[in-house]
Automatic annotation (TrEMBL):
NDH-1 is composed of 14 different subunits. Subunits NuoA, H, J, K, L, M, N constitute the membrane sector of the complex. InterPro entries: NADH-Q_OxRdtase_suN/2 (IPR010096), ND/Mrp_TM (IPR001750). Belongs to the complex I subunit 2 family. It catalyses: a quinone + NADH + 5 H(+)(in) = a quinol + NAD(+) + 4 H(+)(out). It comes from the Bacteria. It is a multi-pass membrane protein. This is NADH-quinone oxidoreductase subunit N. Its EC number is 7.1.1.-. Keywords: Cell membrane, Membrane, NAD, Oxidoreductase, Quinone, Translocase, Transmembrane, Transmembrane helix, Transport, Ubiquinone. The gene is nuoN. It is an enzyme of class 7 (translocase). HAMAP family: NDH1_NuoN_1. Pfam families: Proton_antipo_M. GO terms for molecular function: oxidoreductase activity.
Length: 476
């Protein structure tokens, strides 16, 4: 057994178990578990560099060590570390930040690592549930906050429903193929020119369960409420690492397990992509809460990533990897700025109206938010434009010109609410200024994120593009 191929997962698992024991000593251990968890995630990232990418199938074909999985793990681990750092600064003023918070994120990270490496329907489900169970607790982390409790309950109930749908789809695929391995499922789809009704139902239910996890329309209903109610650092985590892991898992399932049935699942993916783009763009128009607006932004961005999946090619898979890497940077940067929206006495503020005239009271914060909004909208010369261009290129390369044209139209419509935030900050009369927040590490992260999504980010096209191409090539 080549344990070196699963070294990142081993590091995180052992660290989570040990730190769970440390967390039992009480709230005073919070700084210890926080920074130890960040160190464990950094160590896992370094372990990825030495991980044998050609180890192939492991544990009887349950997981695989390849470039695609390594790329996804890197995105998830970095996002999780940022979420832990952000929470340490956000919760420290109150009494609710417990030592178990970073431990929950470590367990979720193990689940996400299993997700992006799964080559079996069984490990797919185990990884997804390990990540989800930790997420349910994180959503309701502020026990004294009614909104947080409501968010956790909604997420749990709807997540359980989605898990049931996914499990039903998996059982159908197993029943009609006799295997849970992706290779066996693909062979069953390839056996007949027209897949049986049972296989098609299994395909539909499996994709429906995965669509919930990536909050794609029409399974998006939980996203705005959970994003608004959960503590802001938790929302930043939900919008980045688990979403990226679920998108990459869906990509692997479609391009490996269901590759021979591309014509069947492509219809579903195209519908989910366009519906997510337009609902995410239009539903955000009337939002007055910045976290709800960013929730619809995440739905909108998932739609663009799914355009790359609809292409069904190596170019499309590479575009998805590139898109999710830059999307995570933009989203985390935006939420780190939202964490700075506090009153003078340290209470969080989430209304768009509070951003009025921010350029006059906090110009640096206003410019940082403007950078992230322009990039999320995909407006050149900001780097957020390039991933959108890549997924449209992938669609055009596969011959889906109408899909690319409609996607571009959706991007234009969605740009309105991003520009609306910029207009509020730079052209409206100043509102009550935010309180000063001393968090040098978070400031450095905001600056670094803003630098990456600025025109300077175009220097990353070469190295990041090659990494994405190599990772995507492992699926084909």
């Amino acid at each position: 057994m080549n344990l070196a191929a699963i070294l990142p997962e081993l590091i995180l698992t052992v660290s989570a178990i040990v730190l769970m024991m440390v967390a039992a000593l009480g709230r005073r251990m919070t700084p210890v578990t926080t920074w130890a968890s960040v160190a464990a995630l950094i160590a896992a990232c370094f372990a990825l560099l030495g991980q044998p990418q050609s180890a192939g199938a492991l544990f009887g074909g349950l997981i695989v060590a390849d470039g695609f999985g390594a790329f996804g793990k890197l995105i998830c681990f970095v996002s999780a570390a940022v979420a832990i750092v952000a929470a340490h600064g956000w919760f420290e003023r109150g009494s609710e930040h417990g030592a178990e918070y970073p431990v929950l994120i470590l367990f979720a990270s193990v689940g996400m690592a299993v997700m992006v490496s799964s080559t079996s329907l069984m490990t797919l489900y185990v990884g997804l549930e390990l990540s989800s169970l930790a997420s349910y607790v994180l959503a309701s982390y502020r026990r004294t906050d009614e909104r947080s409790a409501e968010a956790g309950l909604k997420y749990f109930v709807l997540g359980a429903l989605a898990s049931g749908i996914l499990l039903y789809g998996i059982s159908l695929l197993y029943g009609f193929t006799g295997t849970t391995g992706f290779a066996g499922v693909a062979a069953a789809f390839a056996r007949d020119a027209t897949p049986s009704i049972g296989l098609l139902f299994g395909l539909v239910f499996t994709l429906a369960g995965l669509a919930f996890k990536i909050s794609a329309v029409p399974f998006h209903m939980w996203t705005p409420d959970v994003y608004e109610g959960a503590p802001t650092p938790v929302t930043a985590f939900f919008a980045s690492a688990p979403k990226a892991a679920a998108v990459l898992l869906s990509t692997r399932v479609c391009l490996e397990a269901m590759a021979p049935a591309t014509d069947a699942w492509r219809q579903i993916v195209i519908f989910a992509a366009l519906a997510s783009i337009f609902l995410g763009a239009i539903a955000a128009y009337g939002q007055t809460n910045i976290k709800r607006l960013l929730a619809y932004s995440s739905i909108n961005n998932v739609g663009f990533a799914l355009i790359g999946l609809a292409a069904g090619t190596a170019t499309g898979a590479s575009a998805i990897l590139f898109y999710m890497a830059i999307y995570v940077v933009m989203t985390l940067g935006a939420f780190l700025c939202v964490l700075r929206m506090r009153t003078a006495d340290g209470q969080p503020v989430e209304t768009l109206a509070s951003l009025s005239g921010l350029s006059q009271t906090r110009p640096a914060l206003a410019w940082a938010i403007a950078f992230f909004m322009f990039s999320l909208a995909g407006i050149p010369p900001f780097f957020g434009f390039w991933p959108k261009l890549l997924v449209f290129w992938a669609a055009v390369g596969a011959g889906y010109y109408p899909l690319a044209v409609v996607g571009i139209l959706g991007a234009v419509i969605g740009a309105y609410y991003y520009l609306k935030i910029v207009k509020i900050m730079f052209f409206d009369a100043p509102a009550e200024p935010y309180g000063k927040v001393r968090a040098p590490l978070e400031t450095a992260l905001i600056f670094l994120s803003a630098l990456v999504i600025s025109p300077v980010g175009y220097f990353l096209i070469g190295p990041l593009g090659r990494l994405a191409d190599n990772a995507a090539g492992s699926l084909f």
